[in-house]
Design brief:
By secondary structure, the protein is mostly helical. The chain has 2 domains: 198 residues, Growth Hormone, Chain: A (Up-down Bundle), CATH 1.20.1250; 226 residues, Up-down Bundle (Growth Hormone, Chain: A), CATH 1.20.1250. Helices cover 80% and strands 0% of the residues. Helix 6 packs across helix 7. It is globular, with a radius of gyration of 27 Å. It starts with 17 loop residues before the first helix and ends with a helix. 43% of the residues are buried.
Amino acid sequence: MKSGTGTATEKPSPLPSSGMVGTMSSADGQVDESRRAVALAWYGLAVLLMTTLFALVIRQMLSLIAPSLQTSLGFTDLQIGMLQGLGMAIFACVASYPMGWLADRFGRRLILAIGVGIWSLATFFCAFQDSFGGLFAGTVGIAIGEAGLAPIVYAMIPDLFPERKRHTANLVFYAGSLFGSGIGIALGGAMLEWLSVSADSLPAWLAGIDSWRIAMVAIALPGPLFFLLVVTMPLARRTTPPSRSGKDDADGAMLDFLPYAKTHWRSLACVFGAIFAMAVAMTSGLNWFPLALPRAFGIDPATVGVGLGTAVTAATLIGVFLPGIALKLGQRAGGLPPIRVAGFFFWLAPLPAAFLPFATSPFQAYTIAALQGAMGVAGSALMPGVIQDLAPAHLRSRVLALLGIVNALALAASPLAIGLISGLIVGPRGMLYSIAIVSLPSLVAAAALLSLAQRPYAVTVRIVRSQLSGEEA
């Protein structure tokens, strides 16, 4: 509306008071800071996933170059087995806890970065060896460098993510690790294949050098890049060890695991006992099916590879998605702790395994393997998060290091048990029966132990969280 002077009179918009401006600025700043923390956390997880893939490529390459080692260096099957078994599994198991202790004591980023440097240098060292002793020393170096990988990564995830997003991050990393093994085989195989068909196009100074040596050097070269990525990755959350009044810090850091383990031994024994039993069951089928199915059904071993590979892939895909769905449904129902969700999947796993002795065709055996594997993967995917809740922040890497040790022991026990039982059962289905005899009781034991863990685990988690709240206060 116009006034008599012909000018429009507008009512000025009310301005917020200075206090409101300050409040809005503070809120905007908190939102920006929260978004920045989320972005940094996912960037950190991406670095950890890429670093894990780098390690898996190296680990798988050691298996892929085995025929070349026998051709160029004349290694026996026993020596190859020692490189892949004794050199990797045993020394990784031995070094796992010391690497976890170093990570808790001196910083997880630093020790993980040093581990990257160790396995990269050891891989480079392997490329120039002409003897079994030299290559064995190189694989020991790779095993020691990689020993702290999974424990340190899972210990760092709570340093990156708040609790409401931590289980999602765990599942993402778990799935990436599972698929990373296949990716490692594919990348390593593609590199060796390219080197074999492109020998004439390589520079003259590489002429006459074994392709496996070139491959080992090539996969070691990204080591400095991953070292820098790890050592510079930001941590969105900070955790500090509790004070140790009256003790020297170094002595306290070394010894405080023992009082914790003594106090909470029931929780630790049940949880890690369940993990061990599940690992025995899972590895028994995966390792022995390629031998059992041709005997039982008279099929070509190459066919078993295709069928079993399809079953394992299906089990992995199903297994990594089920925990996230179950946790969301549990939240709608009032909230279910991850250990109860894992226990649900552990109790489902024995059901398909019970039908394995009665399988009458390879398809039925593959279906049983896929269903059992999916339940096992779904439950196992939640166990790192269960251990994260179980462990005090300043002991987290050491407690998680037990996960690698337990899995390594299961990997050693399962083949031995099935081999012994199979020798006692006559007939073409003896190996199939042996797998069922080992895996079915192991699955039941895993589920039972996780059920027994519920009460002591809840007590341990409550104590750990109360201590953390007291330190933060």
